[in-house]
Amino acid sequence: MGIDEVGADTDGLFVGALDEIGREDDGPVPCLVALHGRPTRHVFERAASLLGQEEPAQRELGARVLRELGAHDEEGRRPFTAETVEVVLAEIPSEPDAWVLGWLISVLGYHNAHETLDLVLGHQAHAAQPVRFAVAAALPCLADPERAQDRVVEALLRLAEDDDDSVRWYALYALFHEAAGVTGERKAAWATALVGRGDAQRRAQLHHLGTTFGDGADSGLREALGRERGV
Length: 231
Description:
The protein has helices at residues 3-6, 10-21, 30-36, 41-50, 56-67, 81-91, 98-110, 117-121, 129-142, 150-159, 165-178, 184-197, 200-210, 219-226. By secondary structure, it is an all-alpha fold.
């Protein structure tokens, strides 16, 4: 269902967005995107209310609307960030669906809610892949942008050896592209250890990541990531 079919009516956009996220494919979501561009009190309250609904799809929609509701400012905060973080934190402890829980964690990352870092770290070993994936993706947005934090690095190193390749990729990207205040030598040491312990698929992933670095990247890091041991 497209925007032309539902018109400009906000409630109609919610109906259309629910249909969009219910599809099995990863096609365009124009209704959801339109809602993101309407950071009004009505949209916020409607999305927040969905987090308490019985159906997981409704809760997912609420989280996905809140995640990107309105443009962020220079500090990475959005028009309803404080209230969004509050309602999401209230729902996380009792959310039974791993897929929805992942989206709730993603909301915190998209709002750069640094104050929720420890709560998110507490989910790094969750049994469900969607939750670990959300943690790996959110950590760069929640960590201190000025300095490396040991607990964040430890979590990313753990996730960098996850059984799921998408979880590993986000963790690796965060370690090697987004970790603040980390020397090239330390990154190269991480890479050497990960390459040495990984199976063929994981070594290939590390090698591919190494090829994404430009000429300005630390040469020792590129060399460590570029090794194709057994690939």
